[in-house]
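Handout, section B. The chain below has 160 residues.
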Amino acid sequence: MQSIHNILCEKLNPRSGVIKISSSKVDDRIYFDISWEGDFHFIVTGWMHYGWYYVQRDKQCISPSYVYKELDNRALSVMQHIIDEIENGKYNNKKTEKEKIKQVLEERNLTSFMNNTKWKELIDSIMENMRDIPIQYKTFFDEEEPSIYWTIDADEHFFI
């Protein structure tokens, strides 16, 4: 059986500005990376019969994540289309999550009063002392107040 790296190298055709093509395999899981100048990457990760692929810049996803169930001609065709879009400049002006946050901060004249350590202490305290108290919060990109409440014990998870 042909390796995933060989299949991807044979079937995908990056034509311009490619800096490096690399891949690795750990415990049957693959990681395939085509990188271009400007820190653009086309990433394929998963296994032979299931995985996902996406475009990233500055180690942040700037495209939707696409799922493949098999590395068949259809999946490879979609992957090639995304590679062509990278090379045609479609992702040149796509913002990373970090850039989007910075833009919103500047537009709204916002500033942070808590560093990551303080946020971690707050979340840890909530998780230890108030797991069943209903909470409501608005994310950075939400325009309206949420209409639902959550509890830590139910189905909300916080990660910092």
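Note. The longest strand covers residues 18-26. Compare this with the example in section A.
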